[in-house]
Every structure is written in structure tokens, then in C-alpha cells.
Amino acid sequence: MKHLSMPITLLFCLAGCTTSSPYTQPIATASSSQNTEPKPVNLSYTPVPAEKTGPVNVYLIPLNDFPENIAAQMGRDLSKEFGLWVKGTIAMGTQGLIPMSGTQQFAAEDIFEQAKTVMQRLPEADGNTYFIFLTNRDLNTRSRNFRFQFSHHDKACRCSVISAARMHPEPENSPGNRQLLELRFVKMTKRAIGQMYLGWERSSDINDLMYSPIMSLDDIDHLGNRHPAIPKK
After folding, report:
1. 189: closest CA among 94, 75, 44, 85?
2. What is the C-alpha separation between 150 and 180, in angstroms, rounded?
3. Quick count: other Cβ atoms within 10 Å of Cβ 87?
4. How far is CA 107 from the centre of its chain?
5. 3-state DSSP call for residue 192?
């Protein structure tokens, strides 16, 4: 199977600038302003909500091949859904991280090993904080018991890694397929939080988010997006 490394992307709509903007109009001259009574200006603003305080429950840490803005957006969305503080960080440095010999796959254990200092130094983390690394690199373990892995978890370091490398649909450039890629990736991230942080048990019901085993993209696509522990809104 070929290695897919195109980063996940989101679509943004940008409004174009026009000359009707008040910031592009000429400033009134002194003579014209003398005959014009100044109009009252109502100034209003929406206060920016203060960021949560206390320990972060789950850190989403993108590697340098994964968009930081998507990690941040996932953090905000998952915070609302789980009622936890899930926070995205800027990308982690990966200098010295190399594929396993004779492959283009990266060992999950090598990623965790490289991230030790990062996990120790992140602010607002405590002994219960859980760390999820996000990457587009093709993933496996040192033992290579499987051809590849979508994710890997380690209870000892309270961390997981989720890989998008094998989740890309073909063709992957259409909006529908980009949304499918994002849905697959978010499902696997939610499973990691459920299993490793919340202690949810795995299920044999394919309609359950915690269904196991996940052996193919078809399993991920048929996987339910919710676990009974998450109330439907």
C-alpha cells in the first residue's frame, strides 16, 4: 500500500477587500468638517471568553507534518463534546525522528520517546493529563505485528498517537472526501480519549464509537460516532 502523506486541510472562505471599506475612504477636510455636526458613535464589542484555568485534561500535540490550526479546532470541538479541557498546541519538533529500517513507517514508541521532554514541559499539565500526538506519518510499532496502525496507545506514558496516513480516501481532493478524512481522524481521536482518559471499555457493537477491533477503513466508516457515555444533544 502506498504511503499517503498529504496533510489534512480545512476549507476557509475569505471575503475580498473592496474600495467601499471605511478604511479606504479619504479623510474629511477641515473646511467640510466645520459644517457637519459629529454623529455619536456607538462602540460595542464582544468580550473574549477567558481561557480555562487549572490542569489541561487532554493535550493534542501535532507533529511538524500536521496543521496546527486543525489541532486547535479539534481541541475546541472536543472540549464542548466531552466537557473536558482539550487543548491543541503548536507543532512538536521532530529532528532525529526517522523511519524504521527498510520502511517508510515510523514507530509509535520512537514518537513517544522523542516527546518525553515536551510532555514534561507543557504548562497546565499534571499527573493526570493525557497526551495525543497527531501526524500524517505512516505508523507502526517496533514489533511490526501488523502491516500498519491507525493509532497506538501507551498507558505508562499516558499518551497515544493517531496517524492519518492510511485514512485518505481516493480521490482525496474533493470536498466530500476531505470531510470524510476529517471524520475518520476525529473518530479515532475520540476513541483514544474515551479508552485512555475516561476508561471506556471496548464494544462489539459496530454502532458504538468504542467498537473493536478496527482493522480497516471500512470499520472506521461504519463505526458509530458516539459512545453511550456521551449524551446525544
Report:
1. 75
2. 15
3. 25
4. 20
5. helix
Count helices and strands (H / E) in the chain.
Answer: 6, 7
* CA angle (90 as vertex; 134, 186 as ends), nearest 5: 30
> Contact 60/89 with Cβ under 8 angstroms?
yes
pTM: 0.76
C-alpha cell at 207: 454502532
CA dist., res. 72 & res. 4, Å (int) = 23
The three grid cell numbers given for residue 63, joined into one nine-digit string: 507533529
User: Shortest CA distance to 85 belongs to which of 59, 56, 61?
Assistant: 56
Q: Which residues contact 100 (CB under 8 A, 6 or more apart)?
A: 106, 107, 140, 142, 144
> How many alpha carbons fall within 13 Å on the CB side of residue 30?
0
C-alpha cell at 224: 458509530
**Cβ contacts of 206 within 8 Å, gap of 6 or more:** 219, 222, 223, 224
pLDDT tens for 73-125 read: 999 999 999 999 999 999 999 999 999 999 999 999 999 999 999 999 999 99
